[in-house]
C-alpha cells in the first residue's frame, strides 16, 4: 500500500458542469495531462480491443468485416468509435455499461512500480484526460496502483446524450476553463488526432507509443526540474 492512495476527483466532461462552475477549480501554472488507455499501460495489452469485441458480441454483430467497417466509419465521423456507435444507434448505454463492469481488469493490467515512482518524482500537478467511463478509469487506476498520483480525472459520461470527448474542441476547452491554464500544458496520449488537436492549441504534446517513451519523457521533465 502506498502512502498516498487517495483516489482522484472524477469530473465528467459536460457543458452543464462548466455552467455551474464558472470559476476555475484550480489555478494551475503548469499541468501534466495524461490519457489513460494505451498510455499508462502497454498498448499491446489491447484492453480497449477486448472491450469493443465484447460489446459487439453483446450486440450480436459477429461478422468481422461488419465490425471493422462500423469502427472505421464511426471513428472517421466522430473521432471516437464508441461515440459514433451511440450516435448511429448501434450501441446503447446499458450494453456498454454491462461490458465494462464485467471486464476482469486484474487479469489484464498490472502495476508498474517504476512508472509510479517516476510520476511521483515529477513535482508538477497531474491529471488524467480520457474518453473512458468513470468506472473504467477508477478500476484501471486501481489495478495500476496509481491512485494518489493524479489530482483529477476528466472522463466521459456515456449515459449523457451528445457527450463531450476527445478530439472534440469542446473537450479541450473544458480542461482549459476548468483549470485556468492553457499554454503551460504538457500532454501525453496515444492517439495522433488528440495530439494534433493539442498542438493546435499550443500545448506541448507527446505521442505515446510505448511505456519506454513515457518513462523517457518523465525522466527528461524531472531532469529539467533539477536544473531550475
UniProtKB/TrEMBL annotation:
GO terms for molecular function: nucleotidase activity. It holds the Pfam family Hydrolase. InterPro entries: HAD-like_sf, HAD-SF_hydro_IA, HAD_sf, SSM1_domain. Signal peptide: none annotated. GO terms for biological process: nucleotide catabolic process; pyrimidine nucleobase metabolic process. It comes from the Eukaryota. PANTHER family: PHOSPHATE METABOLISM PROTEIN 8-RELATED. This is Pyrimidine 5'-nucleotidase. It comes from Vavraia culicis (isolate floridensis). The lineage of its organism: Eukaryota, Fungi, Fungi incertae sedis, Microsporidia, Pleistophoridae.
Amino acid at each position: 500500500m502506498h502512502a498516498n492512495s487517495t483516489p482522484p476527483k472524477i469530473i465528467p466532461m459536460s457543458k452543464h458542469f462548466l455552467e455551474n462552475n464558472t470559476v476555475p477549480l484550480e489555478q494551475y501554472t503548469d499541468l501534466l495531462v495524461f490519457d489513460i488507455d494505451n498510455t499508462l499501460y502497454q498498448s499491446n495489452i489491447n484492453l480497449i480491443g477486448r472491450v469493443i469485441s465484447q460489446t459487439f458480441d453483446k450486440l450480436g454483430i459477429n461478422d468481422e468485416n461488419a465490425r471493422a467497417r462500423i469502427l472505421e466509419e464511426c471513428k472517421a465521423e466522430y473521432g471516437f468509435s464508441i461515440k459514433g456507435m451511440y450516435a448511429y444507434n448501434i450501441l446503447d448505454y446499458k450494453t456498454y455499461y454491462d461490458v465494462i463492469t464485467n471486464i476482469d481488469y486484474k487479469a489484464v493490467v498490472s502495476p508498474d512500480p517504476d512508472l509510479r515512482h517516476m510520476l511521483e518524482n515529477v513535482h508538477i500537478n497531474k491529471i488524467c484526460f480520457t474518453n473512458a467511463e468513470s468506472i473504467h478509469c477508477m478500476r484501471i487506476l486501481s489495478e495500476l496502483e496509481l491512485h494518489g498520483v493524479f489530482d483529477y480525472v476528466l472522463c466521459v459520461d456515456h449515459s449523457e446524450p451528445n457527450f463531450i470527448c476527445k478530439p472534440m474542441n469542446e473537450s479541450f476547452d473544458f480542461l482549459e476553463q476548468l483549470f485556468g491554464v492553457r499554454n503551460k500544458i504538457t500532454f501525453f496520449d496515444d492517439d495522433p488526432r488528440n495530439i494534433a488537436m493539442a498542438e493546435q492549441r499550443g500545448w506541448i504534446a507527446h505521442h505515446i507509443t510505448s511505456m519506454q517513451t513515457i518513462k523517457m519523457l518523465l525522466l527528461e521533465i524531472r531532469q529539467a526540474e533539477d536544473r531550475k
